[in-house]
Amino acid sequence: MQYLEQHFGKFGLFTGITSFVLLVVGLRNVLGHDVEVMNFIAFVIFGIIIGMSFSLIIFYQLKIAFSIFGIAVIIAFFDMFRNFILDINGQGDALGVLSLFIFSSFGLGLALLIEFIVKLIKKNKTTP
Known about the structure:
Low-confidence stretches: none
Structural class: mainly alpha
Strand content: under 5%
Number of strands: 0
Number of helices: 5
Largest sheet: none
Mean pLDDT: 90
Order of helices and strands: HHHHH
């Protein structure tokens, strides 16, 4: 974690670009759709949000939140690709992207909530 704390911006940039690339690869290669301008803009914005979230979590040294959010994003991408491949009722593309957004946002909220609860418990234990 010490290395990440020193290079939190680089790690955020890496995760943002990786998220963007995974979205584009999923849309172009797995689904076989062309990437339109609006999809491209949405994927760039999502990559920026994921990258900034990871950067801020590392910057503020939220170790528990980092782990939970990282696992949530990995699960979200796996579920997105699973929905793309299964294509349930012809809605696999919409379900995949929607599940990615839902899992990642829920993971971020859960990670920050658990980190807050742990910090609050530690603070109450040290205060007489």
